[in-house]
Amino acid sequence: MIALIFDMDGVIINSNPIHRQAWEIYNRRFGVETTEEMHQRMYGKRNDQIVRDYLGNHLGDAEVFEHGAAKERLYRELAGPHLASSLVPGVREFLDRHRDLPMAVASNAEAENVKFVLQAAGLSSFFRAIVDGHQVSLPKPAPDVYLKTAELLAFAPGECIVFEDSYSGVEAALSAGMRVVGLRTTHAELSGTSIAVDDFLAPELEAWLQSVGCY
């Protein structure tokens, strides 16, 4: 049997547009205009990395945490009315179709965001394990979050398939020794993936999963 591990932002939910909006609003409170280059650096990173990048390395850990928490409160406020329509096409049906396989979420996101998305979308019951970015010492692109998730599922890394949309996430999964399905929600090209699809409606995804022994 093979286990399926999902990143959240850009894989389960196409949240990047709202994260971009939230960072623009939040950074402007401190006189920082968020450029496209800054947005590109944000994808796949943990909040402590993003806050220090945007607002300065001089900030202490407590300040960094509070900035991150405040921005995510703003994100959840903005995302709430659009959450159902922001799910990546086909993801709910895909999860239901494969509910007999061990599945987990492994995300750099804040714990409150993971809980918010999965509960509000009614997806929590599909996952046997949920690991957020603060349950490991090193965030993606380090492999820690994926190795911890595989351990919780009691599967060897080589028996896990990861669904990712970011460069850092793909690097983390490959470093963990896992195969990667790329979702082209954030980047048009994702080097190192075994297969790349636009969303979970892609017919070639099911054919590939069958070819690698998922069922």
Key terms:
DNA polymerase, domain 1; 10 helices; 6 strands; 45% helix; Rossmann fold; 215 residues; six-stranded parallel sheet; globular; 2 domains; alpha/beta
What does this structure look like?
- The protein is an alpha/beta fold.
- 45% of the residues lie in helices and 11% in strands.
- It is built from 10 helices and 6 strands; from the N terminus they run E-H-H-H-H-H-H-E-H-E-H-E-H-E-E-H.
- The radius of gyration is 17 Å and the shape is globular.
What would a concise description of this structure say?
By secondary structure, the protein is α/β, with parallel strands linked by helices.
Please, how many domains? 2
Structural class: alpha/beta
Shape: globular
Instruction: Strand order, main sheet: write it out.
Output: 3-2-1-4-5-6
β-strand number:
6
- Sheet with most strands: 6 strands, parallel
* Average of the residue pLDDT scores: 95
Strand content range: 5-15%
Reading the helices and strands in chain order gives EHHHHHHEHEHEHEEH
Tally of contiguous helical segments: 10
How do the strands and helices of this protein lay out in sequence?
Blueprint: E1 3-6, H1 16-28, H2 36-42, H3 47-55, H4 61-79, H5 83-86, H6 91-97, E2 103-106, H7 111-120, E3 129-131, H8 144-153, E4 160-164, H9 167-175, E5 179-183, E6 195-197, H10 203-211
Parallel strand pairs: 1-2, 1-4, 2-3, 4-5, 5-6
Helix pairs in contact: 1-4, 3-4
